[in-house]
User: Which sequence fits this backbone?
């Protein structure tokens, strides 16, 4: 039971980091990025590639964050010639292109099998201490990212992002460069999400394309929208609720005796119902953003 709870908390913490990264784009800036999960995939694969090259495992996370920053800059530059809706579709296309490359370039990414045997942190410790220390490390990272995101959102840059989101014409008149704001928001979001992807690879000792599916972006969007876009506490609440659904489904599966395929469908169905209920009765989320005077 302890291993199960530790796994749920650790995975929930990793998703919380990714959701906080998405919140910088969607919550603060109002940007629709449907390929957000690709940043986590870049972070995970970077950790795996560093391991394959025989380099220090401590280089994997910085390498992934740097690669995701470059990808985020490229994605943001696409928005220079595209409207918001078309940019959202373009981000999904970029994510699928990278996922396809990862499947086919076996020499670099291990192909469809992915990269295995990635060393984790604290592996030299005996069980359950290795699991406990990794879980505590992830929770500390969540706290640091939440603090960073809160400072960013409440600072001058965050207020500029909200002004761009609410009144872009006014932001332009006040001298803000909207393209620069978008680029910095996407890059910050990409770096945070890549950090989560790298932790994911170290935790599961694996990096593969399964983590880059569009459905994973849907899960992150659900977490952010249920809790409340633009508010740190809301995002974390959304993560807790969705992760609670994930933790409950295995027990329901054993109780009712249905198969794994049905369990996956039940999990998505329950999350969809929660999202639908929020959209109908709490459009701004369970903990809506508290706007302040700009």
Assistant:
């Amino acid at each position: 039971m302890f291993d199960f709870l530790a796994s749920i908390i650790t995975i929930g913490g990793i998703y919380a980091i990714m959701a906080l990264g998405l919140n910088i784009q969607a919550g603060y800036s109002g940007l629709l990025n449907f390929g957000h999960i690709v940043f986590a995939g870049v972070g995970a694969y970077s950790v795996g590639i560093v391991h394959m090259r025989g380099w220090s495992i401590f280089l994997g996370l910085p390498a992934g964050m740097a690669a995701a920053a470059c990808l985020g800059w490229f994605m943001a530059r696409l928005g220079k010639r595209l409207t918001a809706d078309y940019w959202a579709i373009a981000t999904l296309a970029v994510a699928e292109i990278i996922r396809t490359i990862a499947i086919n370039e076996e020499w670099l990414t291990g192909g469809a099998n992915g990269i295995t045997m990635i060393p984790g942190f604290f592996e030299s410790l005996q069980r359950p201490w290795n699991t406990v220390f990794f879980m505590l490390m992830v929770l500390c990272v969540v706290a640091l990212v939440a603090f960073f995101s809160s400072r960013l959102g409440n600072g001058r840059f965050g207020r500029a992002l909200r002004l761009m989101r609410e009144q872009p014409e006014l932001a332009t008149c006040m001298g803000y460069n909207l393209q620069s704001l978008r680029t910095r928001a996407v890059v910050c979001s990409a770096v945070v999400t890549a950090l989560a992807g790298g932790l994911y690879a170290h935790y599961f000792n694996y990096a593969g394309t399964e983590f880059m599916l569009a459905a994973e972006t849907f899960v992150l969007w659900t977490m952010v929208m249920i809790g409340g876009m633009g508010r740190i506490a809301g995002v974390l609440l959304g993560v807790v609720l969705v992760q609670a659904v994930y933790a409950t489904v295995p027990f329901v599966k054993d109780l009712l005796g249905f198969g794994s395929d049905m369990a996956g469908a039940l999990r998505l169905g329950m999350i969809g119902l929660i999202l639908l209920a929020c959209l109908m009765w709490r459009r701004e989320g369970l903990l809506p953003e508290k706007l302040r005077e700009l």
In short: The chain is about 75% helix and 0% strand.
